Structures are given as structure tokens and as C-alpha cells.
Prior knowledge:
Blueprint: E1 2-7, H1 13-28, E2 35-40, E3 45-48, E4 54-57, E5 67-70, H2 81-87, H3 89-99, E6 103-107, H4 111-116, E7 124-125, H5 132-137, E8 141-142, E9 148-150, E10 154-157, H6 162-175, H7 177-186
Parallel strand pairs: 1-2, 1-5, 5-6, 6-10, 7-8
Antiparallel strand pairs: 3-4, 9-10
Helix pairs in contact: 1-6, 6-7
Amino acid sequence: MKIDIVVFDGFDEMDAVGPYEVFRTAAELGSAPIEAELVGAHGAATITASHGMRLVVDRGPADDADMVLVPGGGWFTGAGIRDEIERGVLAGVLTAARERGAIVGSVCTGAMMLAAAGLVDGRRATTHHSAIEDLREAGAQIVDGARYVDDGDLVTAGGVTSGLDLALHIVETVAGASVAAAVAREIEYEPRVVAAP
């Protein structure tokens, strides 16, 4: 499974790096056929995250990724995800990914990018608690109290650390419960499995 985690100026560090570490640890343990990369929304770049972390990415989203995951950050400050919505490029990337059959997902207010791409209307989803009403107004069927929601080709996680739970769920789906448990043990994280039924 090839997973692109798309980063941009103003993204929340934990939203992207948490799932990235889960996916990479699963692959490093030798048990999960997962290849995860941090990629730039606009190609190779140096990205500055919401809390000042800087990272260099070598490429943009691939045309053959099996999953495209969007972190949040900046929904209420006007930077980050809100700026990316206004640019309009990432929404097109997500729409194209969905059309070719990829899973599209988000962590935290990254769900608002999925909404901007028209991907959440009538779909079960969640986001950071402070943006729940915004996502509901965008047409999503909010699943109250869920850390993450798996709605088939649309997966969403609540705020920040919920991305760890979503990533572990993806690992379990791809490689089984024992591998997901081994990853959780390796990163010393106790999953908070509050998922949609």
C-alpha cells in the first residue's frame, strides 16, 4: 500500500508525523506492505509547519498512491489548510485520487480540505472538535465521539493524536491485528479505539 501524506506550510506537525511514524514502523518491523512518504502539496519544497518545524520533501503527490492523507492545521488562523483551500490545487489532487480509486483521508481539520474537494457530502466523517460544525455544514454525517471514522474510501480522524489511532487502524486493515499491536507496542502508544460502528 503506497501512502502519500501531503504537507504544506502551516500543517500541524503531529497530524502528519504521527501517522508517518506508525506506517514506517509497520514497514520496518517487516510485517506490513506499506510504503509511506511525506510529500509536498506543490512538489519538492522546504515546508514550515504550524509550530515552526521545517522539513524538506522531495516530491509532490504521486499519481499511483493507494491512499492520500491530508493533515490539518491553520483552519482558524487563516494559514495552513485554509490557505491551501484558497489555492485550490490540493482539492484537485484529492478529487483525482478518488476518481482513480484511491482512499482519501484526513487528520484533524484536514477534513475541511476533503470538504472543499466535495468528498464528504453525505459521508460519515469526523474532525477536530472545534471544526465539527463546519464539517457538518459541509454535508458530512458527523459520527459523534469517534476518534476516527472508516467510511470505505474515505477515512477521517479527529484532532491531532487521533491520527495515531487512524494509522494503526489502517495497519491492522492491511497487515492484521498482531502487526498493529506490535507497532503500538514499539511506539509505546495505547490505542484509544473509539471508532465508528
